[in-house]
Design brief:
Order of helices and strands: HHEEEEEH
CATH class of the largest domain: Few Secondary Structures
Strand content: 25-35%
Low-confidence stretches: none
Structural class: alpha+beta
Number of domains: 2
Largest sheet: 3 strands, antiparallel
Oligomer: single chain
Radius of gyration: 19 Å
CATH architecture of the largest domain: Irregular
Helix content: 40-55%
Mean pLDDT: 94
Number of helices: 3
CATH topology of the largest domain: HU Protein, Chain A
Distance between the termini: 19 Å
CATH superfamily of the largest domain: IHF-like DNA-binding proteins
């Protein structure tokens, strides 16, 4: 499912137009990104939690050449699945 499919499915449930729903989804995405950039976490109950984690520089190896190289530090976005969503997914497997 891509963004357009998701927008259409949610818009259908809420009796909205797909374009309105896509605008809402864009606003939600922008707000999540702004919160993460500002160092906040975003929790959606019964879905999951987005947060930024700092990953320190580390030593790695090129698979192609075997050469040792330094992987630079960076900030990563971590998503943690809520226990309720995980239980739902586990019950369907």
């Amino acid at each position: 499912m891509n963004k357009r499919d998701l927008a259409a499915a949610v818009a259908n449930k809420l009796n909205m137009s797909c374009s309105e729903m896509e605008s809402i989804m864009d606003a939600v995405n922008e707000t999540i990104v702004e919160a993460l950039v500002n160092g906040d976490h975003v929790t959606m109950w019964n879905f999951g939690r987005y947060e930024m984690k700092h990953q320190a520089a580390r030593v790695g190896r090129s698979f192609a050449t075997g050469e040792t190289l330094t992987i630079p530090e960076r900030d990563k976005i971590i998503f943690t699945v809520s226990p309720k969503l995980q239980a739902t997914l586990d019950s369907r497997a």
